[in-house]
Amino acid sequence: MGDLRYKRASPCLICGKPDWCSRTDDAAISFCARVTAGADRLSRKEGWGVFYHDRDLLQNPFRQKREPRNFYRKQPEEISPAPIEIRDFIYASLLRLSPASNYLSLTEGRKGLLERGLKNFEDYGGLPCSASDRKDLAARLRILLNQTFPSFVRQNPLGLRHVPGFWINDNGEAHLWQDRDFPQPFLLIPYRQSGGKDSSMSDSIDGRDKG
User: Mind giving me the DSSP string for 128-144?
Assistant: First the structure.
């Protein structure tokens, strides 16, 4: 069974968005980058919501072999997302520490913010193309979380792992997004609730400068 990325012609069955998410080629399982509520489990590294449309896969261990390779291993206990106040704090801190204005390709490059008629750069962030730089950001955000919400961290030892988009490796080091380098930085777009809090974060693939 293959693993297919969603496209505009066939958006994610869970969040309805055309990017980031993926599914198995027979649409038996969806892997949603934005929604975790109601998921059957979370992916090991990225913390994506894993949704089984074919419910027999959850009951029949032999049929589970049809899942993509990354999901052969038994998954750890599901990790619930941090409260909205903590997610808002982490995502707002990420925008502050890594604003879109740090990356010329995201502001003035092809399909950048200026080309889209947007001048409020402060509302957007940039995800570094280097895995090392993203790891450094995760480490800084982990310290801020530990200092600002010590009681949450005491009760939840994985701390930053409870914020979608972050994960902890086997050595206990915090990471942000995937553990590989990309050719260009990503544009970070906050998804805010009616109260103004950042409940989740997405990158805009179209926002990368390819010129």
Answer: -S-HHHHHHHHHHHHHH
This model's pTM is above 0.85: no
State whether residue 73 is helix, strand or coil.
coil
Q: What is the largest CA-CA distance in the chain?
A: 54
Q: Domains of the chain by range and CATH?
A: 3-71 (no CATH), 84-207 (3.90.980)
Collapse the DSSP code of 186 into the 3-class scheme (helix H, G, I; strand E, B; otherwise coil) and give the result. Answer: strand
Residue owning tokens 């889209």: 116
Closest-CA residue to 138 (of 149, 127, 147): 127
**Residue 56 burial class via C-beta count within 10 angstroms: exposed 0-12, middle 13-18, buried 19 and up:** exposed
pLDDT in tens, the chain (211 residues): 444 444 455 788 888 787 788 888 777 888 888 888 888 888 877 788 888 887 777 766 544 444 444 443 344 456 889 999 999 999 999 999 999 999 999 999 988 999 989 999 999 999 999 999 999 999 999 999 999 999 999 998 889 999 989 999 888 899 999 999 999 999 998 877 666 666 666 664 333 333 2
